[in-house]
Each structure stands twice: as structure tokens, then as C-alpha cells.
Amino acid sequence: MIPYGSHDIQQSDIDAVIDVLKNEFLTQGSQVPAFEQALCDYTGAHFAVAANSGTSALHIACLAAGVGPGDWVWTSVNSFAASANCALYCGALIDFVDIDAQTRNMSISALKEKLAKAEDTGTLPKAVVVVHFAGSSCDMKAISAITEPYGIALIEDAAHALGGEDHQGNKVGRCTYSDMTILSFHPVKAITSAEGGAVTTNCEGLKQKLKLFASHGITRDSKVLNTVDLAKGWFYAQIELGYNYRLSDLHAVLGKSQLERLDTYVSARFEKAQYYHQRLSSLPVKLPMLDVKSAWHLYVVELTEHNRQTVFNVLRENGVGVNVHYIPIHLHPYYQKLGFKKGQFPIAERYYNNALSLPLYPTLCQSDQDYVIAQLEKELT
Ligand SMILES: *Cc1c(COP(=O)(O)O)cnc(C)c1O
I want to staple 35 with a disulfide (CB 3.0 to 4.6 A). Which of 7, 193, 256, 326 is the partner? Predict the structure, then answer.
């Protein structure tokens, strides 16, 4: 089966991990700060805080933004459930914004309208989590211009988008127009640490909160402890209810080793995306946009409600691991129980009925890609 996504491990990754295995520290050593620094160097953000998954990164980002019981958080309905679950972990209320049919990202006009209504009813969100779907950045400048006057925290879920750029050419993760950006290093993503994630930010205060929430809410900071306690030597203080969301040194060194090849990976993905574009342009399918510098996490074509299931089945039967991204979050049984209804986000629902993710990853070889294309041609012409 040609998978829809696949990671790439090279000897240098293996050597780096083995080195750490022979070191004194398997966790809480020097590898995590080194990986965090490398993420800052790559993205241009001032600070990066590693976490043990993209999901825990989302959770601590919401906590650092001050999200708590009674607050609203909004996110794009076309995403992985984690983009919404993070709000519920904080005891907050979740709502969704429909997508734009072209970008498949949160619709800016829908967001604007929804904010105006929420202002009237006093239900403005504390935070908005935008998702750079498939690796293609949202128009962050336009979105921040809308959310900023309301004082809403803006969090980018860039689990798909490390290595990409926004509409102004800023690296995703630089937080040029947002408070925080979360990254994921799951093996299907741009680079992997097996499991892992991070939050980037330019705000020192947020960085300190992120660190606190990722490590039990415990601090040894001399600015927080009084001099008597500090003099004790052993003393530390738990000042928040935090978690153990730390990344280990083994994971961190793998992530750092992979980060060195990120640009090569993104270029390889882009080349393959362009090739799909050329070869599929005459077929009756809607292709993704090629405008912003996407990280090309996914290559999603849109078929029609009549043929998506058939094409999915035939490709799977013929060894092509096509997939569907995403079931709109509000359609999951858990979210239906919270009161969300089918029909509430019609553009995302229509997109979902037609979407098909084709195999795309840096090591996808041309003959496999030609095979995928030939299978599609056979079904659609
Ligand atoms: C993968 C992913 C996450 C979660 O990341 P994990 O590292 O798997 O916890 C969050 N949001 C989106 C959009 C993702 O694709």
C-alpha cells in the first residue's frame, strides 16, 4: 500500500538518538533546550517551549492564554479534533467557524460575522485557534486585524504547516500576527520526534506560563520564590495546576536532527504537489490552491458526492492509501452530544463529502505517484 503520508529516518537521526541513550540524561538534559533553540532559529520566534505532543502543546497554549471555565474558544471546523479538545480540557466552551471553500481554512468573513454577533450577546471568545489546513497558512494579517480590537488571544495550530510561510512571506511559527503557534512532530507531520510538539511565542510572559503548565506548575524561579525559601537549596514551589507534558531528550534530539532536513522535505513535497497539479489539471477534480508557500502536509482533491466513495474504494483496493481530511469536528458523536447539529457548517460539510487526500511525502517516488495518477485517471475519465 502506498500510504498517504510517511516519515523519513536517516542514519544521522539514528546516531543522534543512540548518542543520547549513552548520555547521563534521557530527559531534562540539554537536548530539549537545544531543540527549542533550533526551532526559534528556524521560525524566527523569540521563544519555543517543547511538549510531548501537538495536543499537549495546544492544551498549554490555551492555559497560557488564560482560557478557563466559562470562556469561549473558537476554531476551524475542518480540523483534527485536538484543535477543539484543548478548549474542553480547560473547562471552556467550544464553538466553530465554517471554512472558505477555496482555501479550506477558517472563513475570514464567517469569523467577522460571528464575532459581531458574539459582541452583541456578550459571548466573545477568549481565544481563537486557527488551523493552517494541509500546510497552507491562513491570512494571519487579516485575521489578527479582526480579532485584535476585541483583545482575543490568537493561537495558530500549525501542526500541518512547519516549513511554510504566511501571505507576507513570514515563516509559520514566527508568530508575526499571533500570540502563540503550536507545532506537532507526529510521524505524519513535516518532521518527527515520534511523538512531540512545541509552542512558539514572542512573549516572555507566555513562555514562562507555557513552561510552568508543561511541568507540573512547579517553579524554582528566584523572582517567584522568597529569599528565605531560595536559601534552602532544595526548595521549589507549585504555583499552578500543571501537567507532565515534557518532551524527553531522546525525542528532542530526533526532532532536532530532522529539523536540519525540513527545507529539503518541504521542497520535495512542493515538487510532488506541482506534479499532481500538472497531471491532474485536466481531470474533473478540484485541486488545492498553489498561492501561499504551503508546507504541503496534504494534497487534497475534491471529487463529487457521487463518486468520492467509489474512487476511495477503488484506490484503496488497488494499493493506494488515500484518506479523508477531515470529518468536520462538530459531526463526531462526542460533539453531537454537546449539541452541535449536522448542517451547521455547510461549507465544511460539503467539502468533507468530496475530499480525498492523495499520497504525499518527501520520499514518495515518481513511479508510485504516476501509479496514483493512473488509478485516478482510470476512474475519472
Ligand atoms: C496532528 C495534529 C494535531 C495534534 O498533534 P499530535 O502531536 O498528534 O498530538 C493537532 N492539530 C492538527 C491540525 C493536527 O493535524
Answer: 256
